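Hey, quick one: can you model this chain's 3D structure?
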Amino acid sequence: MPTTPESTRDVATVERVIAARADKIFDLLADPARHAEIDGSGTVRAPSEGAGHRLALGEVFGMSMHAGIGYTMANEVVEFEENRLIAWQPRPTASIMRPFVGGRIWRYELAPKDGGTLVRESWDIRHEKLTFLVRPLRSRTVDAMTKTLERLAAVVEA
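Sure thing. Here's the predicted structure for all 158 residues.
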């Protein structure tokens, strides 16, 4: 499994063994059109127009979001290893938000495990613009990531 920062003040991780092959899980993660299907936070709505392609390193995909208000994010794939690792870094598309938000990394790592695949999701805010503003969201984010892995399992194990 690729090296991942351990859970620290600015990196939170959750793990789950999912009874499915890594390639099946990875295909879902690499398809932005399916992200709302597995999102445990309730904030992911739909990919921007034209985002119906499979992700690769350096790809940028837009996502409509809603957390009290609607907004969109441009997500750049910053880490990619087929069937093993995918991570993206969202930035707000609204210029008014850019000085304050953006830079966290959402990372998924997959490793073969007896009975399926160990999936590790990480929320890495070490590159966030104003870390102190998002750090208080850690507990809620861990809960949402746990729900995301539950939903991911439900989809790929069906």
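One thing worth noting: The mean pLDDT is 89.
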